[in-house]
């Protein structure tokens, strides 16, 4: 019997749907039960959570035991000869406890060590049968469980979240046909074209080997030495210098499969495909000064943001899109589809939205799930295949290999988070940590000893993977194709597509990064490379880092792609935006409550930050609770800052240097700042003092003030203006350089 027969068994389906009993794999009656880690069926499809239930260990209602299940009476003192005597070897409990602790750590991922994960679901909008036979892309009614892990690349497991880096965006689809892993990044391109360069690239960006500095940063000599000697990196370097490298939230970040993959339909026909994830909250980033401060104020900034949103039921969503290219058009572009340093401009091939993913459950245990999850680009299902992209080919080797050392042997696919919901049956045996109890005498194919010679192979019609049929020929050669040799056109395309503020941030990023390089020749060579992208950009960078401006003038091709600019990807909602509402005793409760309600109704998250924690007395004799004291957090951890009304409270806020800093720092970072009544006077006064030369208020500048909150028209306008400013995310038209914050 093959699994498809088991799982289309109507009897079992009915039992689950009717809720007659909780059915788990290990409770299935003999004959119906899938051996090992079988699929878990629900009305909605195949439920990974049921599959995980078997592994969940909840201490509620249980005694403390040894690993052998023996109950423990005392775990605070080791067994000893006399109360001041030596510890006895006989103390099996102490030895087991300490030994297990000694072995708690496993090697961190060699890249992408720092990450955060969540479970969710994916559903396709309409059948994609015309291009792929992948089962999870056929039926809009079918929900496929997923686990997603976001990560930074260069830093260690304990490094800060908000460093300048690419972000990993890896999705494991637990499909009925087996696990499909889309192991992507937040940039659509990569630094190198051939995987054989990956160790070189990673060694260059990791901390320098003599000093192990700097942590989680590309701003050092070895990185810039490498990328300036390996110019294929320059397109991705442009993305790295842009604000894309400091996302406001994983929930506000695009994801890309990067490579050109191949869809294959039931007729065996192939179509090239690039994958795109688009966040429904829009694409937003931090600013660099803020990102650096966040790294100290809250090193878990992005991880906490994802966790908290899911805990609050604000489930992040992404739309999956594809760019499809017919095989006949493989050579229709001025770049090679197999070159992972290139995008297909969306103006040339539009992104077709095909489905939606929502993340709605945090893991129960970071180590068991987020740390032990093992992604692999070669985890594909029927209907999805590879291309000859040499970066992808190397990845198809590396991911399996790395799990063997990281997770300690070949049975990592049996770890709960990695277990497919599809039935696993094969003749792979033994190894460290084997979880399955394989039954039967024959562990080979073909055999005549197991009933029916099982496990037997299946035909593609019965769901077996069929590799795309392709004629391959060629001379054995260690050489890059001439079609991979254009290193700069798309870097220029990216630069040309940026809004003014994006360009300013890129110049500042180059100056910061290269300004950290000790070797002058590295700075100079990097400027030469930038000059190949755009002369004006290179001049601007050179001026900031004290090297000669490049004399060679280069020609910018002038093309742009609007889809590349974050200015065009902002979205318009304020869902989950955080607002720091500064508060002190004596604040005006009458205007505060409707304000908080109005923001909350629109999905934002205002937080009352008291000059002290606990209850705050309001001017009308009531009390409100502070969410926390303002000294425990910082303006950089919020999307906007607001000072409410109440002369007594505002006087106290105005007298507190840290509270004043909230307003000025938020302004410097382009965030909306708002004030009500006396609070408006304070905000205006602070900004006037900081920028005496400039006219800084005005809703269009994101400075939203209301003098008289009792004026209902003005109040409505105030709310609308504040919401509109929040939706813009940042106001980058401000001149903030003079603000000392
Ligand atoms: Fe990789 C991890 C994404 C090129 C070798 N990679 C890793 C992760 C992501 C990516 C998201 C973390 C997965 C997780 O959360 O567990 N990697 C990419 C992308 C690439 C890329 C989008 C280019 C398009 N990677 C790449 C190359 C190689 C590797 C060329 C090797 C030849 N990557 C690895 C690895 C890692 C890894 C060493 C470390 C931990 C792991 O695999 O599980 O095998």
UniProtKB/TrEMBL annotation:
PROSITE patterns listed in its UniProt record: CATALASE_1 (PS00437), CATALASE_2 (PS00438), CATALASE_3 (PS51402)
An example Gene Ontology biological process: response to oxidative stress
Residue ranges crossing the lipid bilayer per the database entry: none
GO annotations of cellular component type: cytosol
GO molecular function: catalase activity; heme binding; metal ion binding
Region (Disordered): 24-85
Reactions listed under catalytic activity: 2 H2O2 = O2 + 2 H2O
Active site (record annotation): 112, 185
Cofactor(s) the record lists: heme
Cross-link (3'-histidyl-3-tyrosine (His-Tyr)): 376-399
Uppermost EC category: oxidoreductase
Domain Catalase core: 65-453
The keyword Cell division appears for this protein: no
Keyword terms of this UniProt record: Heme, Hydrogen peroxide, Iron, Metal-binding, Oxidoreductase, Peroxidase
Segments of skewed composition (Basic and acidic residues): 44-65
Enzyme Commission code(s) on record: 1.11.1.6
Pfam families in the record: Catalase, Catalase-rel, Catalase_C
Sites where the protein binds heme: 109, 149, 198, 395, 399, 406
Protein's job: Decomposes hydrogen peroxide into water and oxygen; serves to protect cells from the toxic effects of hydrogen peroxide.
Similarity-based family: Belongs to the catalase family. HPII subfamily.
Protein name in UniProt: Catalase
Protein's organism: Actinocatenispora sera
């Amino acid at each position: 019997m093959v699994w498809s027969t088991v799982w289309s068994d109507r009897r079992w389906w009915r039992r689950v749907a009717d809720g007659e009993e909780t059915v788990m794999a290990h409770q299935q009656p003999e004959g119906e039960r899938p051996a090992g880690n079988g699929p878990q069926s629900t009305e909605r499809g195949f439920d990974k959570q049921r599959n995980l239930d078997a592994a969940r260990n909840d201490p509620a209602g249980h005694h403390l035991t040894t690993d052998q299940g023996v109950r423990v009476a005392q775990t605070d003192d080791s067994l000893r000869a006399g109360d001041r005597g030596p510890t006895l070897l006989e103390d099996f409990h102490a030895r087991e406890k300490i030994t297990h602790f000694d072995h708690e750590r496993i090697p961190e991922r060699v890249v992408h060590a720092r990450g955060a994960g969540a479970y969710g679901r994916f559903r396709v909008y309409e059948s994609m049968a015309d291009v792929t036979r992948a089962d999870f892309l056929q039926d809009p009614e079918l929900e496929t469980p997923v686990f997603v892990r976001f990560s930074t690349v260069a830093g260690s497991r304990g490094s800060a979240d908000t460093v300048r880096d690419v972000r990993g965006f890896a999705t494991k689809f637990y499909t009925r046909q087996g696990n499909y892993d889309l192991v992507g990044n937040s940039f659509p391109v990569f630094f190198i074209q051939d995987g054989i360069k990956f160790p070189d690239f990673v060694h260059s960006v990791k901390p320098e080997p003599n000093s192990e500095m700097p942590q989680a940063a590309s701003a050092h000599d070895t990185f810039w030495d490498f990328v300036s000697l390996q110019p294929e990196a320059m397109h991705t370097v442009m993305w790295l210098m842009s604000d894309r490298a400091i996302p406001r939230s994983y929930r506000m970040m695009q994801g890309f499969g990067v490579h050109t993959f191949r869809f294959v339909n039931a007729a065996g026909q192939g179509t090239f495909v690039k994958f795109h994830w688009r966040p429904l909250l829009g694409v937003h980033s931090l600013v660099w000064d803020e990102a650096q401060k966040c790294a100290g104020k809250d090193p878990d900034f992005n991880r906490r943001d994802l966790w908290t949103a899911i805990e609050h039921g604000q489930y992040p969503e992404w739309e999956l899109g594809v760019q499809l290219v017919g095989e006949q058009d493989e050579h229709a572009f001025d770049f090679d589809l197999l070159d992972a340093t290139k995008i297909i401009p969306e103006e040339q091939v539009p992104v077709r939205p095909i489905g939606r993913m929502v993340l709605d459950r945090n893991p129960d245990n970071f180590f068991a799930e987020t740390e032990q999850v093992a992604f692999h680009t070669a985890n594909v299902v029927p209907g999805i295949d590879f291309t000859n992209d040499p970066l992808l080919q190397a990845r198809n080797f590396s991911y399996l290999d790395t799990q063997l050392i990281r997770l300690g042997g070949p049975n990592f696919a049996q770890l709960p988070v990695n277990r497919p919901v599809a039935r696993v049956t094969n003749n792979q045996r033994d190894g460290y940590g084997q979880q399955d109890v394989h039954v039967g005498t024959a562990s080979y194919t073909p055999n005549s000893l197991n009933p029916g010679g099982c496990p037997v192979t299946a035909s593609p019609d019965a769901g077996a993977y069929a590799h795309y049929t392709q004629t391959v020929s060629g001379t054995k050669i260690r050489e890059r194709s001439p079609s991979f040799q254009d290193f700069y056109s798309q870097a220029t395309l990216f630069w040309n597509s940026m809004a003014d503020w994006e360009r300013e941030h890129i110049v500042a990023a180059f100056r910061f990064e290269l300004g950290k390089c000790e070797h002058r020749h590295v700075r100079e060579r990097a400027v030469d490379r930038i000059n190949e992208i755009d002369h004006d950009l290179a001049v601007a960078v050179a001026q900031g880092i004290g090297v000669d401006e490049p004399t060679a003038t280069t020609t910018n091709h002038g093309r742009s792609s609007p889809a590349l600019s974050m200015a065009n990807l902002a979205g318009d909602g304020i869902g989950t935006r955080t607002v720091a509402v500064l508060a002190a005793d004596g604040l005006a409760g009458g205007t505060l409550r409707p304000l908080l309600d109005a923001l909350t109704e629109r999905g934002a998250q205002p937080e009352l930050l008291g000059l002290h924690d606990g209850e705050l007395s309001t001017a009308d004799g009531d009390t409100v609770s502070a969410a926390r004291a303002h000294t425990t957090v910082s303006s950089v951890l919020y999307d906007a800052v607001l000072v409410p009304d109440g002369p007594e409270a505002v006087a106290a806020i105005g007298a507190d240097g840290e509270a004043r800093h909230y307003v000025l720092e938020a302004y410097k970072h382009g965030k909306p700042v708002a004030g009500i009544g006396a609070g408006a006077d304070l905000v205006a006064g602070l900004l006037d003092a900081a920028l005496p030369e400039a006219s800084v208020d005005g809703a269009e500048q994101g400075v939203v003030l209301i003098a008289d909150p009792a004026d209902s028209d003005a109040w409505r306008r105030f709310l609308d203006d504040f919401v509109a400013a929040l939706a813009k995310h940042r106001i980058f038209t401000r001149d903030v350089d003079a603000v000392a914050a």
